[in-house]
Amino acid sequence: MRIVRRAELTGQPWRNGGGVTWQIAAGPEGADVAAFDWRLSMAEVAADGPFSAFPGIDRTLTLIEGAGLALDFGGGTVRLAPGDAPLSFPGEAPVTGRLIAGPVIDLNVMTRRGVLSHHVEPLAAGEAAPAGTVALVALSPQPGPAGGAGLAPGDTLLADPAGGLDGLAAAGPALAVVLRPARPQRWISGAADA
Q1: Would you say the C-alpha torsion 114, 164, 170, 130 has a positive or negative sign?
Q2: I need a surface site. Which of 5, 44, 82, 193 has the fewest CB within 10 A?
Q3: Cβ-contact 145, 171 below 8 angstroms
Q4: 23 and 97 belong to one structural domain
Q5: Region of residue 15 (phi > 0: left; psi between -120 and 50: alpha; otherwise: beta)
Q6: Mean pLDDT per 10-residue interval, the chain, length 194 residues
């Protein structure tokens, strides 16, 4: 496992130019924003406006800093604040964000539909990471793993490619990012080919 320090991440403009994102990790190794199978990042939303579209991608957004964000999906609005449950939605959905009171920072997990699936699970101090956990994102200052350097909010414990973080106890409030292979399609016997 390794620690990815939030303070050491390099910001990049959103695909639509409407904000800044800091990539924490992506796979396969070296994949850019157009070719990833999975991506873990943080983003600053500093102004109202549309989110970038990611056709064929499933997304989960968790607000980690700021007063709140209202997401308009065209047919309804969802309000998010730090501590709220993660919100999952298809990347091709037209989404416009409206700030409640100043800039916010969110954690964004994306997986390519049909290749991988994901979920984000909030953990309290002492809770064990579920099976398939590839990252633990600290939500508050906490001691580092095995007595190492401490973690600041937004620092991430990232699993080695050969193994996950299954069962690791969170040292403080954290978000567990779980990746799994996409479920294989089940074909009905005798069904006609489409």
Answers
A1: positive
A2: 193
A3: yes
A4: yes
A5: alpha
A6: 92 79 90 86 92 93 96 92 96 94 95 96 96 95 77 93 86 95 58 40
Residue 25 resides in a domain = yes
Kindly provide the b/e burial profile for residues 29-64, where b requires at least 16 CB atoms within 10 angstroms of the residue's own CB: eeeebeebbbbbbbbbbeeeeebbebeebbbbbbbb
Residue entry with tokens 């809770």 = 127
Q: Based on the structure, what is the number of domains in the chain?
A: 2
The answer as to whether 190 is a domain residue is no
Phi-psi region of 114 (alpha: psi -120 to 50; beta: other; left: phi over 0): left
User: Are the C-beta atoms of residues 109 and 175 closer than 8 Å to each other?
Assistant: no
Locate 20 and state its tokens. 């800044």
> How many whole angstroms separate alpha carbon 187 and alpha carbon 131?
28
**117: its two tokens:** 């699936």
For residues 154 and 169, state if they share a domain.
Answer: yes
Domain boundary among 75, 90, 112: 112
Task: Compute the Cα dihedral for 20, 137, 63, 72 and give only its sign.
Answer: positive
* Side chain identity at residue 131, one-letter code: A
Give the helix ranges, DSSP H, for 97-183. Answer: none
